[in-house]
Design a protein that fits this description.
alpha/beta; Rossmann fold; eight-stranded mixed sheet; Three-Cys-motif partner protein TcmP; Tcm_partner
Length: about 280
């Protein structure tokens, strides 16, 4: 079984997380006291089909397992909500990485549940440090889950669906359905009035029949969504990287990919890894 994803940005995203993981392990290899965890909240099957390519390529989960130098992770924790895809990843690990099978845990569960469980684990086990990668299906990661990571030893990379998610729910006239408002509230961890004030401008105009209130969506909504999510991450983590902005073939923004950490050196590494991608 394979997952299907699109465009050069898919490859760029995987290159970023793998490059960061290698640099992360260089640093952690010098910390004899620390044990390392790689956490993937939407692990997939390990193999993906990329639009525009005929061959099947390794996904992030298998590329992380490929890292041997300067050291592998002590523990790998892969979360996949789809049972069939979870079994496919287990089989790929068993077949291709038998030496890591005992350290690679694959669970069928909602990412939100396991983010909270990881937060509890890191709170109890101070000698562990985690590198997390969250590449969600739509807006399925709740802010409450992210907020549980405050003050913990984790560097978290997250793909934020600013164009394909947040912007699509923000109707131009401000008439957002109750279901969509609830989704935005859960994803951003903000109340609906805060969301409206951030993305909409209210104007009172005089018409032939008296005053009328006009509600208009702000310009550059997708950029504002990326900035807002970065601000939200800064309420949980000390530092947030510059985003790698992913665009489709028409140059429309789909995602902001960013890393949150409590370590200033990690921030520098993340920005250094992301920067070359802007030139591509």
């Amino acid at each position: 079984m394979k997952n299907t994803f699109g465009g050069n940005w898919t490859e760029a995203k995987m290159e970023i997380i793998v490059a960061y993981a290698k640099a992360y392990l260089v640093i952690m290899s010098k910390q004899a006291w620390a044990k390392t965890i790689y956490f993937d909240g939407f692990a997939g099957s390990g193999l993906i089909e990329v639009d525009g390519r005929e061959d099947v390529v390794k996904g992030t989960s298998l590329r992380i397992l490929d890292i041997l130098e300067p050291k592998p992770f002590d523990t790998y924790y892969f979360v996949e909500k789809d049972e069939k895809i979870k079994i496919a990843l287990e089989n790929n690990i068993k077949t291709n990485y038998p030496d890591k099978e005992k350290n690679a845990h694959v669970v069928c569960e909602d990412c939100n549940v396991k983010l909270v469980a990881m937060a509890n684990f890191l709170t109890r086990n101070k000698s562990f440090r985690a590198l997390g990668f969250i590449d969600p299906y739509g807006m399925s990661v709740n802010w409450d889950s992210i907020s549980k990571l405050k003050g913990l030893g984790i560097d978290l990379w997250i793909l934020v669906p600013t164009g394909l998610g947040i912007n699509r729910l923000l109707k131009n006239n401000g008439e957002i359905s109750e279901a969509w408002l609830l989704k935005l509230e859960k994803f951003l961890g903000l109340g609906r009035e805060e969301i409206r004030n951030h993305f909409y401008k209210t104007q009172i105009v005089n018409t032939l029949f008296g005053e009328e209130t006009l509600v208009n969506k702000e310009k550059s909504t997708v950029i504002k969504a990326g900035e807002l999510y970065k601000q939200r991450l800064n309420t949980v983590f000390k530092f947030v990287s510059e985003p790698f902005i992913m665009r489709n073939k028409t140059n429309s923004i789909m995602y902001h990919f960013m890393m949150a950490t409590n370590n200033s050196s990690a921030l520098q590494i993340a920005n250094d890894v992301i920067k070359p991608k802007y030139k591509e």
